[in-house]
Amino acid sequence: MSRGGIRPWLAGLALLLATAAVQSQPITERARQKQAAEKERADLQQRLANLKRDIDHTETAKDNAADALAASEQAISKANRSLRDLAQEQQQTEARLNQLIRQLNELTALVNAQQAQLSKLLREQYVAGNEDRIKLLLSGDNPNRINRELQYMGYVSQAQAKLIETLRANQQAIRANKADTQNAKFELEEIAQEELEQKKVLEREKGRRQTLLSQLSTKLNAQRQEAGRIEQDQQRLSSLVDKLAQIIEQQKKAEAEAREKRRQEQLAKAKAEREKRLAEQRARAEKRAAEAAKAAKEGKPAPKMPDPADAIDDDEPPQQASLGRNDTVPEPQPDNFGKPFASLRGQLHLPVKGDLMAKFGSRRGDGPTSRGLFIRAHEGAEVRAVAAGRVVFADWLRGFGNLIIVDHGNQYMTIYGNNQSVLKRAGDLVKAGDTIATAGNSGGNEQSGLYFEMRYQGRAFDPQGWVTSR
Question: Whole-number mean pLDDT of the chain?
């Protein structure tokens, strides 16, 4: 309610009170005052309705701008993936063209050699001329043998000529194939150039839409707080993770028996280790008790008992690490899909190089606590998978932009958000160190970088207890 609206309302209310106190005023005057108060109330209600309508319009415009930005980011991601595929096709075409050139050179050399051999043979026949034929005729040998000798000499010349024609035909075929391959190479280069130009157009359109979205966000922030939407975004992500977990469980029913067997073996091993530790603890406790009893019997002070705080379970999460810079990323690794993800604790590397700007559990303003890390990195920086797994989600999600989720088995997942581009598709298998995305600021994020989460059984936990800087 504006001050301009409050003051007339208060004035009207004061006038009504004054009218009630002065009973001698005419009824028509009281009716007029009541009518004025009702009109002021109607004006206030109309102003409130207009304000709500303005907020709705701004929210709708922002949603439309966010959808448009999402479409631009998805298109840019698709263009990047297309350019990557075209580059691979160009490399393959170039290799095929080089192979054809080598084959053409080899055939040319062979044709030249065959031509030289045929020329030599023809010269020798020409020099010998009819002399050899006359010698054969006057030799007195069997006429059939003489005829065969003469035919053989002709066959040799014909065979040489036919071989050269075959080689020339092969040369012509390779030249034609080379020309087709060269044309395909030129077409790929033209397509790549068109894709690049289209990407530039998309980048400009993305910039315009980002500017519009920023302006609308500024306007809307003056009308309402953003904390509710952030919580909704996190709820969407949690809901998505839960649904994905259900799908994953359905897809892995065939492996259930093997997983259960391995789990039982691990449980048995863990149980044996726990029982061993408990037995050792009981033995130490009995030893200390015996020492204490002996000391008490001898009148000596009892030995100091260990502090219960020292008996912290090894599975307790580590303390939060401080903010800093990450300069190590996962290196490409051979196939390690059989290695349990839990065994990699303390050996992982963060997925992108950059400055750690937000840690697990931190709070921004009045919003909820962060469930992951935000690493500031330049736009286009390579985002790598921290471990082997299967991509179960690769799409745009409100609040997280271009998002990738990798399932590592045994209910462990890693989440990579705010990407400029996603380079993998749902269902793809990835190895540790594979480039799966490029860093960016999709989803309306102000800074370029990567949002990174780790989850177990759908619950987020601090990634810093699992990574190393070595």
Answer: 76
1-223: which CATH topology? Helix Hairpins (1.10.287)
Q: Which helix (H) or strand (E) holds 397?
A: strand 389-397
Q: Kindly state the helix (H) or strand (E) to which residue 80 belongs, with its residue range.
A: helix 27-138
Of 176, 174, 167, give the one whose Cα is nearest residue 115. Answer: 167
Element (H, E) at 36: helix 27-138
How far is the C-alpha of 76 from the C-alpha of 70, rounded, in Å? Answer: 10
* pLDDT on residue 152: 66
Residue 418: CB atoms within 10 A of its CB come to: 27
pLDDT tens for each residue of 41-52: 566 556 667 767
**Rounded Cα gap, residues 83 and 189, in angstroms:** 10
Global confidence as pTM: 0.47
Cβ–Cβ under 8 Å, residues 393 and 247: no
Report d(CA 348, CA 336) in Å as an integer.
14
Cβ–Cβ contacts within 10 Å for residue 466, how many?
Answer: 23
Among candidate residues 167, 77, 188, the one with its CA nearest the CA of residue 116: 167
How many angstroms from the chain centroid is the CA of residue 142?
Answer: 86
What would the two tokens of residue 278 be?
């408990």
Q: Using the Cα atoms of residue 185, residue 187, residue 190 and residue 195 in order, give the sign of their dihedral.
A: negative
Cα dihedral across residues 440, 442, 448, 452: positive or negative: negative
- Domain 325-465 part of CATH 2.70.70.10: yes
Cα–Cα distance between 161 and 172 in angstroms, integer? 17
Taking the C-alpha atoms of residue 117 and residue 101, their distance in angstroms, rounded to an integer, is 24
Q: Dump the DSSP string for 57-73.
A: HHHHHHHHHHHHHHHHH
